[in-house]
Specification:
Layout lengths: L14 H30 L4 H33 L2 H16 L4 H8 L3 H8 L2
Length: 124
């Protein structure tokens, strides 16, 4: 009744591909941290809260795009090798989405807002 899906590639044949894809995915996550700090440094200097928030939207979209590319690499790895421990690696990678998820608190922390600006964001 059950059909076992055989992996497309075996670990003995193409282990380099496995390590490169996993390494590239986690390298993407580390690039997100560095790149977002560089992009946010320019917007922190602006005086208007609205302009800073507009820049933050652009940075959040770049973060999401880079993290999604890493997610696609890990999905490809899971498809090619079909190993259970790769699902654990993917779950660990998903924690980066939680770390960089654009929320009110994340916005305040990234833009280093003053207390009065934080009140505006949180809506009192």
């Amino acid at each position: 009744m059950t059909k076992v899906v055989a992996p497309v590639m075996s670990m003995e044949d193409e282990s380099i591909i496995l390590y490169v894809l996993i390494g590239a995915a986690f390298m993407d996550a580390s690039i997100v941290a560095v790149l977002s700090r560089i992009l946010l440094a320019k917007s922190i200097a602006k005086a208007s809260l609205g302009e800073r928030m507009d820049d933050y939207v652009k940075v959040s979209l770049v973060r999401a795009a880079i993290l999604l590319s890493g997610s696609l690499m890990l999905t490809l790895t899971i498809y090619l090798f079909n190993w259970e421990w790769l699902l654990m690696v993917y779950c660990i990678y998903l924690l980066f989405f939680l770390l960089f998820w654009p929320s009110r608190h994340r916005l305040c922390a990234d833009l280093k807002l003053k207390p009065s600006e934080r009140d505006v964001i949180h809506g009192l």
